[in-house]
Amino acid sequence: MNTLKIIHYEDGVKWKSLEHNGPYFPPEYQPLPDDVHFYYDGKKMKLSVAAEEVALFFAQMLDHEYTTKKVFRENFFKDWRKEMTPEERSVIQDLNKCDFGEIHAMHKTKVEARKNMTKEEKQTLKEANQKIVDQYGYCLLDHHKERIGNFKIEPPGLFRGRGEHPKQGMLKKRIQPEDVIINCSKDARIPDPPPGHHWKEVRHDNTVTWLASWTENIQGSIKYIMLNANSKLKGEKDWEKYEIARKLKSCVDDIRNTYLGDLKSREMVTRQRAVALYFIDKLALRAGNEKEEGETADTVGCCSLRVEHITLHEQLDGNKCVVEFDFLGKDSIRYYNKVPVISKVFKSLKRFMDNKEPGDELFDRLNTSLLNKHLSSLMPGLTAKVFRTYNASITLQQQLKELSNKSDNVAEKLLSYNRANRAVAILCNHQRAPPKTFEQSMANLQAKIDARKEQLALAKSELKQAKKEAKDKGNSDIKLQRCEEHLLKMEVQATDREENKQIALGTSKLNYLDPRISVAWCKNMEVPIEKIYNKTQREKFAWAIDMTEDDFEF
DNA sequence: GCATTTACTTAGTAAATCGATG
DNA sequence: CATCGATTTACTAAGTAAATGC
């Protein structure tokens, strides 16, 4: 357990043998039935197959907010016109004159029909899907059968970037076998391309973990077919990640002293680096790589913060030296926080912002590469994101210790667990859109609680009466207890749900919290592991569930 | 006991990080 | 140093299962 890296093979080699059946391709486009029409400027118009397919992509999304956005509409229209025949192109010049109504209606009918399928039809469909999974969903890696995470080629459609993405609405093209690179071992059977097709390339690169790849046409980036999270390869990588974070725990005090000392440096780079590290450590900010302007939504992380993203307050809400953050991070999720900082950091920030305007970088001498180089010199394997893992996991461990009691019942223990989990999610700014039916379902639950309370009160008085008349057979006592338990459970549920309105627990659970902390907690608290990890999660964290004793400490 | 609502799971894929490459 | 490639992290939506009400 002391060696950090599991050395399986010589450097960089990920496997010795890899065999699979290639990716699964989405079905071909089925042209619209003859009674479904597209209209331009009020006139019926039969589209070519290529133009029709793209029209359907748009029509399918008509209920979505995307289709009301200017950028989305413009990008879509531009790309759609490229798919048209010259004749179509000369007619169709204005998206506002396009009537997708019938196509949209047809789509909705189809969705409805799928929902209303009989049990048998659903069963048939399920079996067909299972057949696809059986055929394409697994591979042999070093003679072990492993599940593939995403074995399907992404179907064509309209690009749905997050936030104000400049490329939203562009046509994501259909991928052909001729676009796909297959990776497998030399001695493996090469997967058959679909009939009449060939692969772009077959290579045998055992220094990577992917089975197939293609280049996507929106950003020109590469997409990969990779293993499921429960695979040995991914599991070991995950374990390594947490071991590095634990190693940070052992030297984090030194590192903190180092960057606090660096705040006094005469070198601008060093001071900027120190302040950035202070943020990354204290606030669990992401590194913040620079991004190409105009290619993606305007989002930032620590190193790419600009002056308009922070406001300095000498005094705010009774605190001194408060930094107010307001920026869009990964996935255009807003980060808003008011944080009291030490005065040296505050003064440095003021200096960094001198003579700068909105749009200028706060840390103009710093980038993630520089920062990570420095970090790796402090501890092998240390990068900016290790701080997030470390701070997330250590927070969970602390919170669990603080919040949970052995004497609590299971529902209360789980509330404590969720609260600890939530503290981490808040730290990492993992948000979700409040569920559309949140208010309603909250009101429903409250109504049920009230009803139960009433019932309980009634039952209590009845019991009293029964005891008085000495005709109680002892079983209404138990009934009452059950009723009380149920009420408590619902109240706990209500609290939990309310507190969780805008917070997503999944991301931290899956990616930041050392599962051994949770496994040890379950053992200690005598909570079944199934209560905190569902089947998928148990599979992913099988390594931790197997190896962890109740005395594990992160 | 069945239909409907609600909760939970899984799939899908975009968007980050970070080291390698030229 | 900028770009690229591989891998991890992220949220949303669709699908499915469970709970609930009639």
Automatic annotation (TrEMBL):
Domain DNA topoisomerase I eukaryotic-type: 158-526
Keyword Coiled coil found: yes
Catalytic reactions on record: ATP-independent breakage of single-stranded DNA, followed by passage and rejoining
GO BP of this protein: chromosome segregation; DNA replication; DNA topological change
Alphabetized UniProt keyword annotations: Coiled coil, DNA-binding, Isomerase, Topoisomerase
CDD domains: Topo_IB_C (cd00659), Topoisomer_IB_N_htopoI_like (cd03488)
EC supergroup of this enzyme: isomerase
Domain of life: Eukaryota
GO cellular component: chromosome; nucleolus
Active site per UniProt: Y512 (o-(3'-phospho-dna)-tyrosine intermediate)
Coiled coil, from the record: 108-135, 393-476
EC number from the UniProt entry: 5.6.2.1
Gene Ontology MF term list: DNA binding; DNA topoisomerase type I (single strand cut, ATP-independent) activity
Family of the protein in this entry: Belongs to the type IB topoisomerase family.
Described function: Releases the supercoiling and torsional tension of DNA introduced during the DNA replication and transcription by transiently cleaving and rejoining one strand of the DNA duplex. Introduces a single-strand break via transesterification at the specific target site 5'-[CT]CCTTp site in duplex DNA. The scissile phosphodiester is attacked by the catalytic tyrosine of the enzyme, resulting in the formation of a DNA-(3'-phosphotyrosyl)-enzyme intermediate and the expulsion of a 5'-OH DNA strand. The free DNA strand then undergoes passage around the unbroken strand thus removing DNA supercoils.
Protein name: DNA topoisomerase I
